[in-house]
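Bug #2210: C-alpha cell dump truncated for Lactose phosphotransferase system repressor?
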Amino acid sequence: MTGPGSRAFTEERRTHILELVESRGRVRVAELADLLGVAEPTVRKDIADLDRQHLLRRTHGGALAVRPTYDPELATRARHNVEGKRAIAKACLARIADGDAVYLDSGTTILALTEELRLALTGPAGGRGEPAEGRHPRQVNVLTNAVGVAQVLADVPTVRHTVLGGQYRTLGGCFVGPLALEAVRQFTVNTAFIGVTGLSTAGFTVSDVAEAELKNAVMDQARRVIVAMDHTKVGAHDFRKVCDLDRVDAIVTDRHHDDLARQCTDAGVELVVA
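Reproduced locally. Full output below:
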C-alpha cells in the first residue's frame, strides 16, 4: 500500500535526482541507485516519470538534463543542498586551529565554512560563539580570492584577511588570472580549503580554466589541502581538470559513497563524512 509517507519519500528522491542531473548534465542509473541507496528499477521508474513531465530526458542507462549544462551563478548554487554544505562546513571548521593561516577558496561550500567560522568567532549576537564540535579557533589569518568570503569576515576583529586581486570572474564571485597567480606565490598557508565541481576517475575538475590554475598554485603554497565538496560532485566531470585525487590530503563530504571511499583508501587520502 502506498501512503502519504511513501509519496513524500518518492518526491524527495526525485527532487534529488533532478538536482544531480542538472548539476552534472548526464547521470547513469547505476550511479543514481548507489547515491540514493535504492534499487535500479526504482531509479528507472523515477526517470521515466520525470521524463514524462519533461523535467529531464531519459536515455539508455541513464538521464540527461533538459537544458545544456552551464556554470550557474553563485546565488543559484547556494540554494542547493544547504544542509549538506552546512554539515561539511562544521567538519572543516574543526580542522582549523587557533592562529592558523588558511586559504578559503571560492564556491558555496567554502562560503558556508566562512559563515561557520564567523559564527564561531563572534556568535550570533556579536559575542563569542560556541564551537560546532570540539575546540575552535579564536584568531585566524585568511587568504582568499573570493569576494563573498571577504565580505563575511570583513568586520571580525580576530580575523586578518588578505584578498588576492586580478581579473574578476562574475559567475564565481572571485579573482583569477596572472595577477592572482603571482600574488598567491608570496604566501604560505597551513591549510587550503578548496572547492571543486566534480570528482571522477580523471581527478578533480572545475568549469573554468583560470580557476583551475589558481587552485593548483594555492595547493603549491599549502602544507595541507582539504577539498570540501558535497555528494553531488562525486562522479561528475567538468570542463577543466584541477589535479589527481592523490594530490590532496583530505576530502570532506556529506554522504558516504562506496566508490569514493575505495578511491580515497587507494590514494592515501583521508575521507571525512560529515
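Output looks complete on our side. The domain at 74-273 is CATH 3.40.50.1360 (Rossmann fold). Marking as cannot-reproduce; reopen if the truncation happens again.
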